């Protein structure tokens, strides 16, 4: 496939931030340190602050002083991850060739963007997905690393993937424009919006491949290192997969079967792991994921961004 990227592509890097002023500044410092073998691409940072009452930057001028790259600062008063991500996409210039997504609790390796661009050139893919390496505020329980709770990848360079995540990916902007792709508001408070977004991208013929060298570092606070957080996340992830199957109106029977299987196998692993904390936790996570998946078919939505209301039924008024 003949590559269509210009020698110096226009890249809009979208970051949604919420009450992480130190995290977003650390990310900006790492983006300042990006290196390229040849001429640098034309980079624009699109920073959407989802807490205008306590913004990470007082104004665009302060953001500009904190970044090597041109940047726009956009407040998004409507609460929720989808509201913030769609605001960022609305601010991507029409002449953008690529759109990148990062989180505000990450930093990028110096060769991150160069590896993303090279991968898209080499493969002609629609999306390049990079690995995520976790770093912990304190030593985690053994099961965290053994089960790869926070780790994403690595994969062989150029390997075909069936998913992408907005914590570390770059997408061809022309594909987004051609298909009018935006994040689904149904996932605004639940999370899982990227899983659903990239499922639709693949339905429209988009290809996702691995960019082995496009590494980001994820900084994990102590509050996420206990079993409660991991179990909530597993339940939400299962719920997301079930909801996507319902929305797409296909694969529903398979998801129900997988949910039942996960509950069964998870329970067995918990019993088999009475003397093995890692196996026991694997079973608990599998059980939670299966229950989350099945709950989607009972119209339950597991919310990740509304701690006071962990689940709702559409139309319930909650």
Distinctive features:
single chain, 318 residues, alpha/beta, Spore Coat Polysaccharide Biosynthesis Protein SpsA, Chain A, 2 domains, 8-stranded mixed sheet, disordered C terminus, Glyco_trans_2-like, glycosyltransferase, transferase
Low-confidence parts, pLDDT < 50 over ≥5 residues? 307-318
CATH class descriptor name of the largest domain:
Alpha Beta
Number of domains: 2
The total of beta strands comes to 13
Helix percent reads 25-40%
Distance between the termini: 50 Å
Query: What can be said about the biggest beta sheet?
Result: 8 strands, mixed
Q: Could you name the CATH topology of the largest domain? A: Spore Coat Polysaccharide Biosynthesis Protein SpsA, Chain A
DSSP strand content: 15-25%
Number of helices: 10
Name of the CATH architecture of the largest domain:
Alpha-Beta Complex
What overall form do the CA principal axes indicate?
globular
Query: Could you give the order of the helices and strands?
Result: EHEHEHEEHEEHEEHHEEHHHEE
Read across the widest sheet, the strand sequence of neighbours is: 3-2-1-4-9-6-10-8
Radius of gyration: 20 Å
Determine the mean pLDDT: 88
Keywords: Glycosyltransferase, Transferase
Domain Glycosyltransferase 2-like: 13-145
Organism: Halovulum dunhuangense
Pfam families: Glycos_transf_2 (PF00535)
Task: Describe the structure concisely for a colleague.
It is built from ten helices and 13 strands. It is an alpha/beta fold and 318 residues long.
């Amino acid at each position: 496939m003949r590559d269509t990227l210009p020698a110096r592509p226009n890249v809009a890097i979208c970051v949604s931030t919420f009450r992480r002023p130190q995290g977003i500044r650390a990310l900006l410092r790492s983006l300042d340190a990006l290196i390229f073998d040849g001429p640098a691409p034309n980079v624009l940072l699109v920073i959407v602050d989802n807490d205008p009452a306590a913004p990470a930057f007082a104004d665009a001028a302060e953001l500009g002083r904190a970044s090597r790259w041109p940047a726009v600062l956009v407040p998004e008063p409507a609460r929720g991850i989808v509201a913030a991500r769609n605001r960022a996409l609305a601010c991507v210039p029409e002449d953008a060739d690529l759109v990148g997504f990062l989180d505000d609790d990450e930093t990028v390796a110096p060769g991150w963007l160069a590896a993303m661009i090279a991968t898209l050139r080499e493969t002609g893919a629609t999306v390049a997905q990079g690995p995520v390496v976790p770093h912990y505020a304190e030593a985690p329980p053994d099961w965290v690393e053994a089960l790869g709770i926070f780790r994403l990848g690595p994969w062989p360079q150029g390997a075909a993937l069936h998913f992408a995540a907005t914590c570390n990916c770059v997408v061809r902007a022309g594909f987004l424009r051609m298909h009018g792709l935006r994040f689904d508001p149904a996932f605004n408070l639940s999370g899982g919006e990227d899983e659903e977004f990239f499922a639709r991208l693949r339905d429209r013929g988009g290809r996702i491949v691995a960019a082995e060298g496009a590494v980001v570092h994820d900084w994990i606070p102590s509050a996420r290192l206990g079993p409660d957080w991991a179990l909530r996340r597993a339940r939400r992830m299962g719920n997301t997969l079930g909801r996507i199957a319902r929305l797409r109106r296909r694969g529903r029977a398979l998801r129900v079967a997988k949910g039942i299987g996960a509950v069964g196998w998870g329970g067995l692993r918990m019993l088999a792991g009475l003397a093995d904390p890692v196996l026991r936790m694997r079973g608990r996570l599998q059980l939670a994921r299966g229950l989350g998946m099945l709950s989607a078919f009972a119209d339950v939505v597991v919310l990740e961004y509304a701690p006071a209301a962990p689940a709702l039924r559409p139309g319930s008024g909650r």
